[in-house]
């Protein structure tokens, strides 16, 4: 990056070692950056009030244990809401909270950047 280039996002050029300070990017990635959490967030954005088994079917390869773990972590972080209905048989569904919806614009930008990188590398980028 040249000296005349302007950056429209906050980067502290004096920060020499991000491990010594609390880095907002690392903090955010610690919350959403795991293998199964991003697909869960995307699916919950597309399909509001999704039941557990529908989530399981929508994410090939995820185990019941990992799905439960990720949902509990996302719920604890305030990104996912769990709605339990007092019916027989019991019904539970999941949806994004306001905080969960707030991360979507950032994920859209990462998606765009990733598509560009795939094209540069000659990979099959998704068609928008």
SSE layout and pairing:
Blueprint: H1 24-32, H2 37-46, E1 50-51, H3 52-58, H4 64-76, E2 80-85, E3 91-96, H5 98-102, H6 104-120
What key attributes describe this structure?
128 residues; mainly alpha; Arc Repressor Mutant, subunit A; 3-stranded antiparallel sheet; 6 helices; 3 strands; 11% strand; disordered N terminus
- The CATH architecture assignment turns out to be Orthogonal Bundle
Element-by-element helix/strand order = HHEHHEEHH
Averaged pLDDT, please?
A: 84
CATH topology: Arc Repressor Mutant, subunit A
Provide the low-confidence segments as ranges: 1-7
Residue share in helices? 40-55%
Question: What best-fitting shape do the alpha-carbon axes yield?
Answer: globular
Structural class: mainly alpha
What would your notes on this structure say?
This protein has 128 residues and is mostly helical. It has one domain (20-120): Arc Repressor Mutant, subunit A (Orthogonal Bundle). Helix content is 48%, strand content 11%. The chain has 6 helices and 3 strands; from the N terminus they run ααβααββαα. The protein has helices at residues 24-32, 37-46, 52-58, 64-76, 98-102, 104-120, and strands spanning 50-51, 80-85, 91-96. A 3-stranded antiparallel sheet has the order 1-3-2. The longest helix has 17 residues, at 104-120. Residues 1-7 have low confidence and may be disordered.
Summarize the structure.
The chain is mostly helical. The protein has a single domain, classed as Orthogonal Bundle (Arc Repressor Mutant, subunit A).
């Amino acid at each position: 990056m040249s000296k005349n280039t302007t950056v429209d996002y906050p980067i502290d050029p004096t920060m020499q070692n991000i491990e010594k300070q609390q880095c907002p990017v690392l903090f955010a990635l610690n919350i959403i950056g795991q293998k199964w959490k991003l697909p869960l967030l995307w699916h919950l954005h597309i399909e509001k009030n999704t039941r557990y088994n529908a989530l399981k079917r929508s994410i090939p390869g995820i185990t019941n244990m990992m799905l439960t773990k990720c949902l509990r972590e996302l719920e604890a972080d305030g990104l996912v809401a769990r709605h339990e209905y007092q019916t027989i048989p019991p019904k539970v569904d999941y949806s994004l909270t306001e905080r969960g919806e707030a991360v979507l614009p950032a994920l859209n930008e990462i998606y765009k950047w990733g598509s560009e990188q795939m094209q540069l590398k000659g990979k099959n980028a998704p068609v928008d």
